[in-house]
Amino acid sequence: MLDKLIRKKGGEAKAENEDRPVLDETVIPRHVAIIMDGNGRWAKKRSLPRIAGHHEGMKTVRKITREADRLGIKVLTLYAFSTENWKRPKPEVEFLMRLPEEFLGTYLPELVERNVRVRMIGDHEHLPPHTGRAITRAMEATADNDGLILNFAMNYGSRAEITEAVRSIAKAVAENRIGADEIDESMITGALMTAELPEPDLLIRTSGEVRLSNFMLWQLAYTEFWFTDTLWPDFDENRLQEAIAVYQARNRRYGGVDKEDTD
């Protein structure tokens, strides 16, 4: 029903043969994180309900996952639902909590075939049971895959993640398993939900908003940021490649200086 409504009301035509940048295949970011923003505004521009934008955004997830896999990206982290998103209207939240079932129910066979491994960061325990089951089923079905990691940030908030990491370290100190003077950045990194993943090389946020919205605050310390006015349902392979081209043109110094600047 939503698909028929979206096709009827339509949107701006996209250029079929839009030029794509030429990428250096040796400098593809290992980990790309995306704040998927603009579903509601996409729908509003077309006089559609907000849930139509979320449904269309789900299709973009598939498209970008396939392109990330094709490009050789190792980890794709998608900010799907934040701890603050519970404040949205109840019908919208309920719809969003059904999307993982629909997405994974439809595309899980393709993810398995493509050797994609599904992961999740966030508070799994407080998701609705049907949402948690769908994600758990996908993680179990892809557990042996060793290709692209498709990492959903679901019921995720970075401050809560860091707080929980601090609590776990404080408990270890209280139980005399470690000394307070042993705490360092590496230990904190290892206590986060992303401990087994490389830190993001590139962060993309769609829709024109320029903020992090409580997303991976620790992990993004030296990440390259790229913001676009494109709304998430309109984000496509060209835009992803454009972001990577900008990333490849940057000089990542990690707080240091270029050698020629020290001569």
TrEMBL record:
Q: Which residues form the active site?
A: 37, 85 (proton acceptor)
* Keyword Magnesium belongs to the record: yes
Q: EC number(s)?
A: 2.5.1.-
Q: How is the cofactor bound?
A: Binds 2 magnesium ions per subunit.
Chain positions recorded as Mg(2+) binding sites: 37, 224
Q: Which UniProt keywords apply?
A: Magnesium, Metal-binding, Transferase
Cofactor entry: Mg(2+)
Q: In its UniProt record, which GO terms are filed under biological process? A: polyprenol biosynthetic process
Under the heading InterPro entries, the entry gives:
UPP_synth-like, UPP_synth-like_CS, UPP_synth-like_sf
Q: PROSITE patterns given for it?
A: UPP_SYNTHASE
Give me the residues that bind substrate, please.
38-42, 50, 54, 82-84, 86, 88, 205, 211-213
One Pfam family here: Prenyltransf
Which GO terms label this protein's molecular function in UniProt? ditrans,polycis-undecaprenyl-diphosphate synthase [(2E,6E)-farnesyl-diphosphate specific] activity; magnesium ion binding; manganese ion binding
Q: What class of enzyme is it?
A: transferase
The protein's matches in HAMAP family, at most eight in alphabetical order, are given as:
ISPT
Subunit description: Homodimer.
Its biological function?
A: Catalyzes the condensation of isopentenyl diphosphate (IPP) with allylic pyrophosphates generating different type of terpenoids.
Under the heading NCBIfam families, the entry gives: PRK14830.1, uppS
So what family is this one in? Belongs to the UPP synthase family.
Q: What is this protein called?
A: Isoprenyl transferase
